[in-house]
Amino acid sequence: MTTSPYYDLCPREPSENLRWRIRCRERAMTDLKFRDALWQACMSDVCFWMGFAMYGYDPRSKNKIVPFVPYSHQEKVFCKLDEAIDYTQDGKTLDVLVDKARAQGGTFGYLWVDLRRWLRDPMFSAGYVTRNADLVDSKTDSDTVFWKVQFAINMLPVWMRPKYERNLSQYTFENKENGALLKGYSAG
C-alpha cells in the first residue's frame, strides 16, 4: 500500500497547520531549494500535498476556508485512491468503493487526489459525473465540482499553478503544460 512518507511533517491542528503553511510559503518565495523540496514532497505524498497545499470550504461555517488536513481515518483512503490510479495506469482496472459521510471533506479529498495528478502526470485524465449539468461547473456556485477545483487552484502558491484553461461550456480544466485534463459530465 502507498504510504505517506512526509505527512508526519504537517501539523494536524488547523491553526498550527495554517501558521506552518505560511512559514513554508514565505520561505519558498526566496529559497528555491526549499521550494523544490516542497514540490517534491507534494508530488510524492498525497497526504502531504493536502496537508500543505489544499483547503476546504464550508459556506455554513463561521470560518469558511480552512486548511485541509486529512483526518487519520482518511489518510489510508486517500493513499488507496492514489494507489488505484497508479494501478490503472498499467491498463488494469480496479474498483474502489468508498463510504462517504456528509461534512467530512470527502468530495474535496477525492478531487485533491486528482488535482495533484493533474499537476504532476503528463496526459492524466479524470472524469466526474454529477446528477445534472448544474452541478458540474459554475463560476459562483460552490456546490459544483469544478468551482471546487478552481477554488483549489486559486489557493495554491503561485509557483505551483500551471498554465491552464477552464472551459465552462465544455466542463473541462486543461493543464496546458502537460496535457492533463479534468472533465465533467452530467448523468441527466
Question: Would you kindly provide a brief summary of this structure?
Answer:
With 188 residues, the chain is of the alpha+beta class. It contains 6 helices and 6 strands.
List the helices and strands and how they pair.
Layout: H1 14-30, H2 32-44, H3 46-53, E1 55-57, E2 65-67, H4 72-88, H5 106-120, E3 125-130, H6 145-155, E4 164-167, E5 172-175, E6 181-186
Parallel strand pairs: 3-6
Antiparallel strand pairs: 1-2, 4-5, 5-6
Helix pairs in contact: 1-2, 2-3, 4-5, 5-6
Average pLDDT, all residues: 90
Query: What integer value in Å does the Rg equal?
Result: 16 Å
Which sequence of strands runs across the widest sheet? 3-6-5-4
Mind describing the biggest β-sheet?
4 strands, mixed
The class by helix and strand makeup works out as: alpha+beta
Alpha plus pi helix count: 6
Strand content: 5-15%
| N-to-C series of helices and strands | HHHEEHHEHEEE
Q: Which term fits the overall shape?
A: globular
Uncertain ranges? none
User: How many angstroms does the end-to-end distance come to?
Assistant: 36 Å
Describe the 3D structure.
With 188 residues, this protein is an alpha+beta fold. The chain is 43% helix and 14% strand. A four-stranded mixed beta sheet has the order 3-6-5-4, covered by helices on one side. A hairpin with a 5-residue loop joins strand 5 (172-175) and strand 6 (181-186). The longest helix is centred in the N-terminal third of the chain and has 17 residues, at 14-30. 28% of the residues are buried.
